[in-house]
Write a structure and sequence with these properties.
single chain; 533 residues; Rossmann fold; seven-stranded parallel beta sheet; six-stranded mixed beta sheet; disordered C terminus; electron transfer activity; flavin adenine dinucleotide binding
């Protein structure tokens, strides 16, 4: 029996112990002990790797499992071994002999080609070329990066909102872990140095920008290449000497049209994952037991500094928390997400705040700018539902008489001094037939929710709204929420301050009359508190 019993160690611990053993016989005994015990594919591979490192005979044997493709209890036979071609048809011996001869003839040529490829494969980073997906392993990660989208020479509101949240998270990070890491804003465009300085005022410690007049408007290829280049720390010494890590620990994008596009492309380029359309973020440790993440079944592992990314799930009524965790032999960094506009409050800008502004250096290929914008029309701004004292929102409850329901909602809006009408996604995607002038109020520009606008009025009146999570994220910061619904089990009751059980076609006219008369208290039998009643 070997002095080292592999059953007493996790794969990670076993790998560390193997580094201290140089005796081929002892390693062989450990391998046999592993086969007789838990027989973990990853553990066997660790022993084989150590045998290769010390130059032992037979070190290349790998129990029929190719490194990086381990599957417990399974292996694939090659078509040559079973005498079948790729289409599953039998191959005769002559064909097999011919292919073997051809393989021998081309062996030297392939070796030369491989040597040339290894000498210069055009890669400057493990995640640079998707033909060679090689994620970092045991990389060094730090800081929270925020992509600050601009439009018309100004930062979008969601950019300052994300900077405020990032500042809050990283201040908490320092308090919890004792590590001081930065909030890094990154942006690109035409003449955007001033906007980079503005990012410092809104909470960033470092702002990295790339200026080029061709970047005035969002373009997929150059924006993706620049963002990935920045994240990897590539460029001149002057533009990168402020950092000493491989890639960001965390990265945030806005869940705008351009932000959703860029986030997916950049995270794919960096060979990591993405949680889209998030409405809340927090950082804490996690204890996990998934064998894919721990390296072996039945083992628990604590992972520190995990970004928890909350988003509505596909049911529409619950939230899911997304985690981006490393595998034992493969890192998933940066941990990234896109953030729904309006989810967080920006900080009050401090223009005296100290910070580092860095101009990024990179040669942009002309081929990235094959699409040129020769002219454009500016669309009307649309309807801005934010900033009003009262929002009246209509949902699928108007289905029995869509036009009448819309008119009743507009009547209530007119009864207030500062109110506006909103609608749910259900109305936008419905086939309701609206007549007359009310049709213009059924457009997507009035949608409230995850893929619409986010509002926080003093009073939010939801009539015929079920309360799906996708809608909730667009209005749950309202001071007072009043729900009108015939269904006492409607989800919106759970987060309403007042729940009125009734038909909106009957309740809305009464509510309008009460507001016009200055009597905002409804009769007791018509009102049920959103609590236990």
């Amino acid at each position: 029996m070997t002095a080292l019993d592999p059953d007493d160690h996790t794969v990670e611990e076993l790998t560390e112990e193997l580094e201290t053993i140089d005796d081929e016989d002892e390693l062989g005994a450990i391998l046999e002990a592993e086969r007789a015990g838990q027989d973990r594919a990853t553990a066997r591979e660790a022993v084989h790797r150590r045998l290769e490192e010390i130059g032992a005979d037979g070190a290349g044997e790998s129990d029929g499992v190719e490194e990086g493709t381990e599957t417990e209890g399974e292996y694939e036979e090659t078509s040559e071994a079973v005498g079948e071609d790729a289409d599953g048809e039998d191959r005769d011996e002559d064909e097999i002999d011919d292919s073997a001869t051809e393989s021998d003839d081309t062996e030297d040529e392939e070796a030369e080609t491989d040597a040339e490829d290894d000498a210069d494969d055009g890669l400057s980073h493990p995640t640079r070329d998707k033909k060679h997906v090689r994620a970092l392993e045991d990389g060094d990660y730090a800081d929270m990066w925020v992509f600050c989208e601009t439009q018309g020479g100004e930062l979008l509101d969601v950019s300052t909102e994300m900077l405020g949240k990032a500042r809050e998270l990283m201040d908490g990070f320092e308090a919890e872990y004792g590590d001081e890491e930065n909030v890094v804003a990154f942006l690109m465009g035409d003449d955007c140095e001033g906007l980079a300085e503005e990012c410092i005022a809104y909470g960033a410690d470092v702002a990295v920008y790339h200026d080029d007049e061709r970047l005035e408007r969002f373009l997929h290829k150059p924006y993706t290449e620049i963002a990935a280049h920045m994240a990897r720390g590539q460029g001149t010494v002057e533009s990168t000497d402020w950092r000493d890590y491989d890639e960001p620990r965390y990265i945030l994008f806005p869940a705008t049209n351009n932000g959703r596009d860029l986030s997916a492309k950049v995270q794919a380029e960096l060979d990591s994952g993405l949680a889209s359309d998030c409405s809340d973020l927090f950082i804490e440790n996690n204890e996990i037991s998934n064998p894919v993440k721990t390296g072996e079944p039945g083992v628990k592992k604590t992972v520190e500094k995990v970004l928890h990314m909350k988003r509505p799930d596909f049911s529409g009524f619950e939230y899911s928390t997304i985690l981006c965790l490393d595998n034992p032999d493969r890192d998933f960094h940066p941990q990234g997400c896109s953030v729904i506009p309006g989810s967080f409050d920006p900080l009050e800008p401090d223009y005296d705040r100290d910070g580092l502004v860095v101009e990024h250096d990179m040669d942009l290929e002309d081929d990235w700018f094959r699409v040129a914008i020769t002219e454009y029309d500016r669309l009307e701004a649309g309807i801005d539902l934010t900033g009003h004292d009262v929002i009246v929102c209509l949902g699928r409850g108007i289905a029995d008489a869509p036009t009448e329901g819309m008119e009743l909602g507009l009547d209530l809006v007119d009864a207030f001094d500062d109110a506006e009408l909103g609608i749910t996604r259900g109305i936008v995607t419905s086939t309701y037939q609206f007549e007359g002038h009310v049709e213009e109020y059924s457009k997507e520009e009035r949608q409230i929710g995850e893929t619409g606008q986010v509002v926080a009025p003093d009073v939010y009146i939801a009539a015929g709204v079920s309360g799906a999570v996708q809608h909730k994220v667009g209005m749950d910061e309202s001071d007072t929420i009043v729900a009108i619904n015939t269904d006492t089990d409607a989800r919106i009751r759970d987060f309403s301050d007042y729940f009125i059980q009734g038909d909106l076609f009957e309740v809305l006219p009464r509510l309008t009359a009460a507001v016009q008369a200055g009597e905002t208290d409804l009769e007791p039998e018509a009102v049920a508190d959103g609590g236990d009643e």
